[in-house]
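Progress against Task 2.4 (sequence-to-structure conversion) is shown through the following example record, which the project officer requested during the mid-term review.
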Amino acid sequence: MINTHYRSFTLIDLIMALVVMVIIAAIAAPRYYNSLSRYRVEAAARRVAADFALTQRMARNTSASKTILFDSANNRYQISTLTDLDNSGDPYIVNLQDPPYQAELGLIDLGGDWKVIFDGFGIPDSGGFVDVQLGDVRYKVILNAETGATSIE
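Structure tokens generated for the chain above:
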């Protein structure tokens, strides 16, 4: 007599496996979203800091004042006299709501206004900070009034 006993999964085994996968996904999804938010805000803050440095370098190289102007209502900023690298006729405007950042400008205090003018020596007319945020995640880009150096907190 031949034993034809086959081993297989029961419906209960499959349902238990699905329950375990759903629990793991429920734990992982919020952590993934928070991680993605932190990445986006940090990338946006680094972009703002890099554009402060770019504006400062341009002012030094041309020995002429250059301005970076923030528009909090539209979550964007513009560097004066710089054209867009993709479309040479358009002004250089960074919209932080566009991918990959999808962030927002929060509080902006740059010496009482929303712009910084770097003189021909690369010295800003004022210091201050720009908050970049997405949900509960917030980074602050700080501009030193004496040197024009930036830091991110």
